[in-house]
Amino acid sequence: MLALAALVAILPALTLAKPVDLAQRNPSKRYTGVLIKANRDGLCISVNGGTQKAVYADGTAVVSIPCSQATTWDINPGSGSVLVSGHNGFALDAGTNPTNNGPLKIWTSYPGLMQQTWYYTGDDRIAITGGTQCLDEGPNGIQTYQCTTGNTNQTRAHYHLELRLLPNRDLDQFLFLRFVDSFGVTPNIPTGKVYPDPPVGGGQRLHPYGRDDLCLSALGGAPQVGSEVEITYCFDNNDPNSKAQLWDVPAKGATGPVRIINTDLCLDAGNNPGNGSGLKVWTCYDGLIQQTWKRGAGNSNTFGLSNVPRRRARFHRPEPPPLFGTRERPDLAVLEQRRCPAGVLHAIVGAGHPEPYHATTTTIPITTARSLALPRCASTDMSDGEERARTTLRRSKIPRIDARTMTRPH
């Protein structure tokens, strides 16, 4: 075994010669709620104790456990740190002298600190920046080990789910749901439990189109002004976490705020809804444009920003048809309904991911669409008479889960 110092000299000869900085895979992107999964055994790295019993303190061990129980991680542009979701004061730390079989832990985050700065290599490994050690899944779990070409113990995948505003060709803004696997693995999306809404007056869950097991949720367990809003698994009405995913919504065809039940926190699209914008909850203000949503009439069950010309954001309470894939990419399930002249439904497959895939458009006759249980073209509440709904599931694995409180129900 070569000495560590010698390894530094030969690093360019390894496949690490052309690293891709985690923060630079998409410089405008903050990856939140990422699960980091080992290729070797399918386990995910987690703060010891998982989502239910983790202790967030300097020195707490990082271990390998089933992904359904694992805490998640955030990758922030500019630092290369891998931070604990919901506890961004703590970062993945390899210690002051990372060596083979070295343990991992969390520690107070110091951006730029060598043992906390990581990059993603061209062959799907996560390595310490400027060093020779990679995340490695050994027989006893996660560790650091010399980066070695072809070592499948070091091949990882991370997964997240986003809820973002994206443009279409008419420059409207659509809230869309997308599962993203950044490293090229395409297994099925695990399905969680489905829970009924509470009795009248107790709030309603808002689901991605066709996924009643997933809910629109304010993150962090105890929502407050500025809490991010994304998608998690749904929780039972008796679970305290369900309070973050039960909403008071306008009646069908009506306009108004979408409010977390029994709070003064409303769904907010920000001062200038635009490409890549996220959602949050904020103090409710009557009539504020970014908090004023119009709910579709009839069976459309969509929500769109009201009074924002040509900038509508939409999501769904499902009247779900089954999702569908494509012959070329069965892992994708993407549907965007557009103008329906002459009885034709246009399905946009693979839209919304700038790299490394590009959108392709398939025109499906209405007869075929009906056989796929897709809705017919129909009139809507939109002034231009277009029916639009986007559901995007991409290269999927594990949905967005908050590390502290949001875990997949068993």
UniProtKB/TrEMBL annotation:
PROSITE patterns for this protein: RICIN_B_LECTIN
| Keyword Signal recorded | yes
| Ranges for domain Ricin B lectin | 36-154, 211-296
Q: Which keywords belong to this entry?
A: Signal
Q: Which SUPFAM superfamilies match?
A: Ricin B-like lectins
Q: Where is the signal peptide?
A: 1-17
Is the keyword Signal assigned to this protein? Answer: yes
Which Pfam families does this chain map to? Ricin_B_lectin
UniProt-listed InterPro entries = Ricin_B-like_lectins (IPR035992), Ricin_B_lectin (IPR000772)
Q: What name has this protein been given in UniProt?
A: Ricin B lectin domain-containing protein
